[in-house]
Amino acid sequence: MTQTHNQPCAIAQALNIFGDNWTWLIIREAFYGVSRFSEFQRNIGIAKNLLSNRLSTLVEQGIFEKKNVGENGTRYSYHLTPKGAALRTPLFAILLWGNEYISGDGNEAVLLTERNTGRQLTTMSLVSESGEPIEPNDVRAIAGPGANQEILDKFENARNLKKQK
Amino acid sequence: MTQTHNQPCAIAQALNIFGDNWTWLIIREAFYGVSRFSEFQRNIGIAKNLLSNRLSTLVEQGIFEKKNVGENGTRYSYHLTPKGAALRTPLFAILLWGNEYISGDGNEAVLLTERNTGRQLTTMSLVSESGEPIEPNDVRAIAGPGANQEILDKFENARNLKKQK
DNA sequence: CGGTATCCCATTTGATACTG
DNA sequence: CAGTATCAAATGGGATACCG
């Protein structure tokens, strides 16, 4: 698509930013410590003009911060803002899913581990206010304060579908 | 891009499937209980040929299961497989990020709640083997058994970058 | 209903060249 | 180094028509 939708659902909104694969890969590289234009380019294998576009958008969106680090103004670094760093959660979620369902056990190219124990981490979960992990079945999606009629209808419809069962 | 990369990293692999926004939206709809071709089409506003393509790919990938539910073979339903249902984690992660950093507090179109208490869920976390949520700073990404030289280099490089600080 | 086939247009892409 | 400019080629997009 590439074309923007205007659904109020945050998923659709977020996808307007991250619909492009390059963008995810750029952010992944940032988590690995990459901050320079040429490094992104080399590691990802992206064309310069595309990288330039994507980085500009990400800076506009407040996900990266561009700093001048050159002695004479010819070098820049791109670092994740808090907003950008918060993308670690979706990114890790995708990684764990891919490890389990694409790579498969024993073939993972990248693993997540607990720093202290070195143990592998394979599970990600919603956490309650009291700090307890919540089972997927105990989670409900509901319409929020920013919902429009379309979303209200959708949840109404979802309720009806469940009743029919 | 659309073009497939062949990096072994599970993120890149997963993006080969989900690089397309339509795909995420289709899966989102599936979580809302949608299972029919025409419903997907109407709710997402996607062209028929595109929907057909995307669904075919998703069935091939083992994310949806296509069942014949028609009396005379003219009706089908698409349901998430366990592999597909596991995408709830990345999807929720994206939703929470979008709620916090795009919609903002009080403007969320869709919220996640705990079924029993009705309390809003805003946090997602990696969970240790012993069932404890892990802080982001306590997580390390390391090269796994399926890593190639490129990935090993990347982590080597990341270590060097940290030492410099 | 659940698609497939076809067409045409807008966009995206990557390569190359160029610049401060 | 960190881009911008340009451009031909490929791709993705939606609309329409058609089918079992």
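Residues 88-124 of chain A form one domain.
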